[in-house]
Amino acid sequence: MIPPKDEPLWSDIALRMLMNTVSHPIEYAKVLIQIGYEPIPPRPTTTLFGQPALALPNVFQYVRYIKNVDGFTGCYRGLIPKLCAYTMSAVAFEKTSKSIKFKDEPSKEIYDCDLEESQKHKKYIYEFIRDLISRMIGIIVSHPLDVIALRMMAQFVGGETKYKYIINLISFVEVYKENGIMGYYAGLLPRLIGNAAVLMLVSSSTYAIDKYIISDRELKPYAVSTIRFIATTITYPFLVVSHCMAINNCGLIAGLPPQMPIYNSWLDCWSHLSATNQLKRGNSLLWRYYTGPQVIINGKPIPINKYNFHLQSTT
């Protein structure tokens, strides 16, 4: 295997920031779905198997609703702190990765096919440790900005403007006023666990595939991409819990009853979302179904009132 050439860090960051900007309205709608905000009532429908169900609006209908309420620029709430967070995370990851060195690590200039099996195994272990530490540090240093971005988006639920500016530090002050120092790291632990689990699943599976299954170099990138998708899907509940905890009890309507219970810890949040079958909300963006408590009236499923939907106009 030919070692890949290092691409310029800043060109990678610029490209990713462009992609984040273009996709931000969809990610914004996804965040609102993850924290449990459903402004459009579900409509009765049937599944592919003919079972009665309640269909929720897909992500594009959700984005259109946001645009109708807030206008085009409103679809970009939280974008600036989100881009700043990504930049900080990428730089921290790169600098940390380059600074971590192991005394007996095989040289990166040596092809994998030229390494003995024990050296190849050692190389995979060291790369995993380096990536894990770098990823964790990147997340930790950028998490306060992610919290601000999430709270800016969550303000849509109640129409607040508490978290509005980042350049003049007002948003940082608001986080401290509401939750103290720990507010900057609300939702951090489940996020770290989820990212570590993804990295571990991808790294171990890639090593196993490389060693036992696929020898064709051209097929390996596709296999790794598939593994990453599966790992991200498996660990998705950690992302939902992290986003909920980032806004829980932060002074915004979105993080307070009746919109959201006040959780004692992220495990409490996980337990509640699991009990109400909400750990996967936002995972499917095109075909979404209401999975909360419901009753059947005249053959039609109706959501139980305690899980109220916000009956605003969708036109």
Quickly describe the structure.
The protein has 9 helices and 5 strands, in the order αββααααααααβββ.
Describe the structure.
This protein is mostly helical and 315 residues long. It has one domain (9-37, 74-286): Mitochondrial carrier domain (Mitochondrial carrier fold). Helix content is 55%, strand content 6%. The protein has nine helices and five strands. Strands 1-2-3 form a three-stranded antiparallel beta sheet, with no helix packed on it. The chain has a two-stranded antiparallel sheet with strand order 4-5. Strand 4 and strand 5 (300-303) form a beta hairpin. Helix 1 (9-34) packs across helix 2. The longest helix is centred in the middle third of the chain and has 42 residues, at 117-158. It is globular, with a radius of gyration of 22 Å. The N and C termini lie far apart (55 Å). The relative contact order is 0.14. Mean pLDDT is 82; it is low at 1-6 and 305-315. It comes from Apis mellifera (Honeybee). It is a multi-pass membrane protein. This is Mitochondrial carrier homolog 2 isoform X1.
Estimated share of beta-strand residues:
5-15%
Q: Residue share in helices?
A: 55-70%
Mean residue pLDDT: 82
SSE-based structural type:
mainly alpha
CATH superfamily: Mitochondrial carrier domain
Core attributes:
two-stranded antiparallel ribbon, 315 residues, Mitochondrial carrier fold, three-stranded antiparallel β-sheet, 5 strands, disordered C terminus, 6% strand, globular, mainly alpha
List the helices and strands and how they pair.
Elements: H1 9-34, E1 43-46, E2 52-56, H2 59-70, H3 79-99, H4 117-158, H5 170-179, H6 188-213, H7 220-234, H8 236-247, H9 266-275, E3 288-289, E4 294-297, E5 300-303
Antiparallel strand pairs: 1-2, 2-3, 4-5
Helix pairs in contact: 1-2, 1-3, 3-4, 4-6, 6-7, 6-8, 8-9
